[in-house]
Amino acid sequence: MSVIKDMKVSIKRIPQSRISQVDFNNLPFGRVFADHMLVCDYKNGAWGAPEIMPYGKFEIFPCITALHYGQAIFEGMKAFKNQDGDAWLFRPEENFKRMNLSAWRMCMPEITHEIFIDGLKELVRLDSNWIPTQEGASLYVRPHMFGTDEYVGIKPSDNYRFVIFSCPVGAYYPEPVGLWATRKYVRANEGGTGEAKAAGNYAASLLGAREARDRGLNNVMWLDGHDHAYIEECGTMNMFFVINGTVVTPNLSGTILHGITRDSVLTLLEDHGIPVEVRRVSMAEIKEAFANGTLEEAFGAGTAATIAHVDRIGFEDEPHMILPKIEDRKISNMLLRELADIRTGRIEDKHNWMVKI
Ligand SMILES: Cc1ncc(COP(=O)(O)O)c(C=O)c1O
């Protein structure tokens, strides 16, 4: 039993770690799981005591609300090791706040700071051997919550389960990505759940993503659901463009995720005095900038994706726009390097983003 503040966390350790079976030099994203997970149940209007146990299966009834009516939300964050081998999390308080915003939007109970942050630290501390130290690799941590009522009928669940597990990961996009913009599918609309990290948003995005892949691209670059003209985000990351030396990114319209990497990128750009415009960005503007040679860079920013260079953009059936060479991209390459350097303690963490475990 370990005590976090006044909260008791029971810890049942795995008898034999699985870590020796893992090839840390060849980590696929999201397929390898660290030894332990944290589980905490909400019943009778209150969260119970969190338990840390070996990562594994748990039993649920087939009727639970999450499976039928989609009351399920999640977060994604990363832990890193610095040069001295200490474990750190990148901006976990932001994930905590966003988790509770998602919970509010989906009529779910708020999770407490003790369970989320202190439980998270306890779990990552226990599995800190699983934090990879290879360049570009990290421990991806996945808190999530879902409705567990045994009830068929549409209403907010009375019971919930909160779980955190983690995966040592390499790059989500090992290569530059190609994105497809289309008016055919919509991810989110005003008044909808677009800015919540709700599981259903991702299910709704799969068909478009499949069509993007059929077209030789990796994913969809979503357009707004009203005019079908303005760029929103990608399925895993917020979008940035460099047009004639100015960084342009869509504003938080209520339909896109408040990306923590997006916010960090905006701060770093300000630190460097690079001009930024946060506003609506139309597909027509991107096409025009491409045509007149002023579209210098395009990239996505996200926890899993980090800074992902976009090398091709397709729009409907039009030929793909082939973007400038990755080596020539000053701004996104600087951001990629600087974020990695902050996370691994190679440069000063001026904004106090790193939280020691
Ligand atoms: C839809 C969507 N947009 C943007 C992001 C980037 O957000 P963050 O930087 O907080 O990971 C993510 C990933 O979490 C996402 O799933």
Summarize the structure.
With 357 residues, the protein is α+β, with helices and mostly antiparallel strands. It has 2 domains: 2-170, 2-Layer Sandwich (D-amino Acid Aminotransferase, Chain A, domain 1), CATH 3.30.470.10; 177-343, D-amino Acid Aminotransferase, subunit A, domain 2 (D-amino Acid Aminotransferase, Chain A, domain 2, Alpha-Beta Barrel). Helices cover 24% and strands 29% of the residues.
Explain the overall architecture.
The protein is an alpha+beta fold. The protein has seven helices and 20 strands. The two termini are 18 Å apart. The relative contact order is 0.14. The strands form two sheets. Strands 1, 2, 3, 4, 5, 6, 7, 8, 9, 10 and 20 form an eleven-stranded mixed beta sheet that branches. Strands 11, 12, 13, 14, 15, 16, 17, 18 and 19 form a nine-stranded mixed beta sheet that branches. The protein has two domains: 2-170, 2-Layer Sandwich (D-amino Acid Aminotransferase, Chain A, domain 1); 177-343, D-amino Acid Aminotransferase, Chain A, domain 2, CATH 3.20.10. Strand 7 and strand 8 form a beta hairpin. The longest helix has 16 residues, at 199-214. Helix content is 24%, strand content 29%. The model has no long low-confidence stretch (mean pLDDT 96). It is globular and about 60 Å long. The structure holds pyridoxal-5'-phosphate.
Layout: helices, strands, pairs:
Layout: E1 2-4, E2 7-11, E3 36-43, E4 46-47, E5 51-54, H1 65-69, E6 72-74, E7 77-81, E8 87-90, H2 92-105, H3 113-126, E9 138-147, E10 160-169, E11 177-181, H4 199-214, E12 219-223, E13 231-234, E14 238-243, E15 246-249, H5 260-271, E16 276-278, H6 283-291, E17 295-302, E18 306-315, E19 321-322, H7 330-343, E20 354-356
The structure holds pyridoxal-5'-phosphate.
Pyridoxal-5'-phosphate is lined by residues 76, 233, 235-238, 257, 259-262, 301-303.
